[in-house]
Amino acid sequence: MKAQLVETINLAILEWFVRRWQMEVTFEEVRAHLGMETQLCLWSDLAIARTTPALLGLFSLVTILAHHLQTHFSWQVRQTIWYSKSLPTFSDALALVRRFLWASTFSMSAETTDTVKVPRALFERLRDIAVYAA
How many domains are contained in the chain? Predict the structure, then answer.
């Protein structure tokens, strides 16, 4: 009976840790890509109280929009030699949203042409680099 209770408690602790880890990853992504820690430089507590929910809302908006866009855009999860990932990260989602917004903003030529002042392949490669660097 006692061993079963200990096992149940250990399982609950493990489940809480897994849930907490997902939240920590979310906060790290918001810090890294949306500048959440820069709010500490704000002048008032009211400004900080407004900024944090706005940044977390922006994180949610980007995530939802990227989820919707992945069915309409052809895109690949960015890979590196030293780290292989099967699912997109927030930086991938942010790049997809930037790509969508830039495509609708900076569209200069019809999609059927092969050149946009530079060869289309070069333009797309530069765009793909820029969406991650911005």
Answer: 1
